[in-house]
Amino acid sequence: MASGPYNGTIRIAKLPNDMDMSVLDRHRHSWTTGGVVDHTENSYTINWKIQGKGDPLLYAYPHHIQTISNVERTTLRLESATKGTMYGVLGTRWILHEQPSTATTTNSGKNSSSSSSSSSLISWLPQQARPESSTRNDILRHLAHEIETSDYNEDTNKNDNYFSGKALQKYAMLALLLNRPQETSLHNPELAQLALDKLKFAFAVFLENRQKDPFVYDRVYKGIVAQSGLPVAMGGTGNIHAAFGHSYYNDHHYHQGYFVVTAAVIHYLDPSWRTNEISVWTNSLIRDVNSPGHDDDDVYFAPYRNWDWFAGHTWAGGIKVNGAMDGRDQESVPESINFYWGMKLWGLATHHPSLVQLANLQLDIMKRTTYEYFWMLNSNKNRHAGLVLNKVVGILFEQKLDYTTYFGRNPEYIHGIQQLPMTAMLAEVFRTPQFVQEEWDQRLASIISDVKSAWAGVLYLNYATINPSDAYPALKKVKMDDGQSRAYSLYLAATRPGFCRRSLSRVVSGISSSEDITIKSSLLRPIDISNNQHDDRYNGY
User: Fold this and answer.
1) For the CA atoms of the chain, what is the radius of gyration?
2) How many structural domains are present in the chain?
3) Which residues are catalytic?
4) Which of 150, 157, 200 is nearest to 175 (CA)?
5) Residue 35 lies in a domain
6) Disulfide engineering: 39 pairs with which of 44, 126, 282, 302, CB 3.0-4.6 Å?
7) pLDDT (tens place) for every residue of the chain, 541 residues total
8) Which part of the chain is the Glycosyl hydrolase family 81 C-terminal domain (predicted)?
9) Do residues 393 and 331 touch, judged by C-beta distance below 8 A?
């Protein structure tokens, strides 16, 4: 209680152990007011702004402790809301090193050397880019069918840019496979040209901002937003939830990622096509999500809008129009990965090495935090053993974990949204065989035969990581997600290590064709999510 007006700083700290009181007392005269981040190819530094005297006492997350240097550890510990135990450290400058990789990728997508599970290993195509030889004609037939019969304009200009972007990237992958035959061994020059021409024609609608839901530059928060969710007076519908809340900065890295990947593929395959326009357009989308400028360096976009250097990952929630008591959140880790992979591809296509290095660093940090906080191996120490059995968090909020999705609580939704879009980056760097095997055995094998929706295509393509030989025939029959190409799915399965073409005689996921097979199931206990608490407030996707 103060006897009069007080002007100063009041600090509150939790004291888990009385023996730690002396540590708190020694560092009570120094506190942080902010920080500045710098980065190199394989490390990043947080330079803390402080007031007072001496080194500040700060708490570090588990992923910090694994990589941090230049600090002094203390005995203090504190349980965070959703990221496990934090550890007290002393220091004004945190230097965090990601595993340095000797691997570099050339602009052709070939690797000059190798290193285990580093994002720098992967560029445009899988490391083994040639599908198993017996599958090539099969894949070419599916490519021809999809490219020749699909209505690109109808598929890629939807009312919602998210679904438009998914379709554009789907078709971009087909063009990529066919236009790099020296790497994929998929030779059909006429089809390759048709795939690229149809892709360019569909993409031009967005390059000229003629899509059904145009983009608008917001001068208040300095970003590119969908028009549909804005007030009627500004040309929108007045529905703040339109386009998944994109007009209010939800999910920008998810939506923009699909467009950036598509633009990168087009520019890579034909650098002369509308060069200035596509460069300005794509750079603007990247800057909207991940402008690397400090303070006022980029006057048009906020720095690192979706990326959190302290958390080590992105957040999906934007402006919380209706409040957000549980804090920021993120659901779909792979769609976040997809944006940074796209940024890397754009850097390769435009010969921008600093952009490639930044993307590689952020991807490597994200892989670390993904397995600490979002996807849970059996060995995870940050989660209660009961939660580890779920294998994925679902939605990670700052204040809680929710084993659900924003669009439903079916297990195929909860796990499937962590598996798309499947790309070389996701398949070969992030979704490790160990994790895929654990998740399949503990959560998916017992439900896969009941999945009749397009989520079956997503789950089986993920399954190809550990059993490509059985996943391949399943992928020929099951329904596909609207952002998933059957031809590209077969291609990815046929490039997985250990692939062997099988003769087919059994049943997959309820399909009765004699050409199909049954996947072995561990038949563990059924998934029970009846007691999970679901927060129905709209807070990102």
Assistant:
1) 24
2) 1
3) 251, 331, 335
4) 200
5) yes
6) 44
7) 778 899 888 888 888 888 889 999 999 999 999 999 999 999 999 999 999 999 999 999 999 999 999 999 999 999 999 999 999 999 999 999 998 543 334 334 443 333 345 788 899 999 999 999 999 999 999 999 999 999 999 999 999 999 999 999 999 999 999 999 999 999 999 999 999 999 999 999 999 999 999 999 999 999 999 999 999 999 999 999 999 999 999 999 999 999 999 999 999 999 999 999 999 999 999 999 999 976 568 999 999 999 999 999 999 999 976 667 899 999 999 999 999 999 999 999 999 999 999 999 999 999 999 999 999 999 999 999 999 999 999 999 999 999 999 999 999 999 999 999 999 999 999 999 999 999 999 999 999 999 999 999 999 999 999 999 999 999 999 999 999 999 999 999 999 999 998 754 443 444 433 333 333 333 333 323 233 333 332 233 2
8) 135-490
9) no
Matching residue, tokens 């240097």: 69
Q: Cα dist. 205→59, 149, 154, 158, 215 in Å? A: 48, 20, 12, 11, 12
Distance separating alpha carbons of residues 410 and 400, to the nearest angstrom: 20
What type of residue sits at position 65?
I
The structure's pTM equals 0.90
Look at residue 61 and tell me if it is in a domain: yes
- Confirm whether 501 is domain-assigned: no
Identify the residue whose tokens are 């398949």. 427
Q: Could you tell me the residue range of the domain that residue 44 belongs to?
A: 18-97
